[in-house]
């Protein structure tokens, strides 16, 4: 099958390389120094699940690629609307655009630009980033990817995607029964992990050792789950305890991509994380003081990064 990876960074680059190794036609959409390196030397993936190197066509112009069976949409959430406007050359009648991004709003933003019929939800559990231009470093996490049609239907295209990802080495592929539940489950965790490591500038190990900080970490998860439930998302009752158990087992030096972006003067995904929690909470009349606090602490930094 023919894939385009729109945003060939830590998540998209990893997926693209694994799919190419499995024999699929893969095209990469990237920019800047990373694109230049991909064009000159191909892409290298350094992974805890095994290294690989692939030489794939790469471009910053989707018109060079043409219609695809699937577009793996892996840009930062703050780039979603702008990037969605560039998707048209990649779309055929039944093309699925699979969002593997942080947050619970990206699918709606995509649908507003390209139509509901093209959008598939996705969730990625992987710790990976661009180490150097042309190099994707996968340092941890299960490399687990969940996906599903937004209406829960088992379409031919989602089953074909499941077959392709399941057959690719280094990918733990899961066709979700209800992708909205999975999106909100990850949202609850990432708001706690990203918010607390970025706001404190400290890793998870030190947060676990500080009672007040660990209590706040828990309350962020609880608040997000409460908002999701108020919006009709059928989150499992043990979601909070599951994430706390997961967080207790993380490497004590683990931070988050939000912390990385904050400390490297990059644009922050704050609006797609805690800003989104606050907006959704206002819509359903739920109080989210811990998420409001993180949003307030990081908002000046987010505004500075936009400038």
Automatic annotation (TrEMBL):
InterPro entries with a match to the protein in the record: 6-PGluconate_DH-like_C_sf, 6PGD_dom2, ApbA, KPA_reductase, KPR-Related, KPR_N, NAD(P)-bd_dom_sf
A Pfam cross-reference name: ApbA_C
Signal peptide interval: none
Pathway(s) served: Cofactor biosynthesis; coenzyme A biosynthesis
Keyword terms, alphabetized: Coenzyme A biosynthesis, NADP, Oxidoreductase
Domain Ketopantoate reductase N-terminal as annotated: residue spans: 4-151
Domain Ketopantoate reductase C-terminal: 179-299
Any Gene Ontology CC annotation: cytoplasm
Catalysed conversion reaction: (R)-pantoate + NADP(+) = 2-dehydropantoate + NADPH + H(+); (R)-pantoate + NAD(+) = 2-dehydropantoate + NADH + H(+)
Protein name (record): 2-dehydropantoate 2-reductase
Species name: Natrinema salsiterrestre
PANTHER family given in the database record: 2-DEHYDROPANTOATE 2-REDUCTASE (PTHR21708:SF26), PROBABLE 2-DEHYDROPANTOATE 2-REDUCTASE (PTHR21708)
Role of this protein: Catalyzes the NADPH-dependent reduction of ketopantoate into pantoic acid.
Keyword Oxidoreductase attributed: yes
Keyword NAD: no
EC number: 1.1.1.169
NCBIfam families linked: apbA_panE, PRK06522.2-2
Domain of life: Archaea
Gene Ontology terms, MF aspect: 2-dehydropantoate 2-reductase activity
Family: Belongs to the ketopantoate reductase family.
GO process annotations (BP): coenzyme A biosynthetic process; pantothenate biosynthetic process
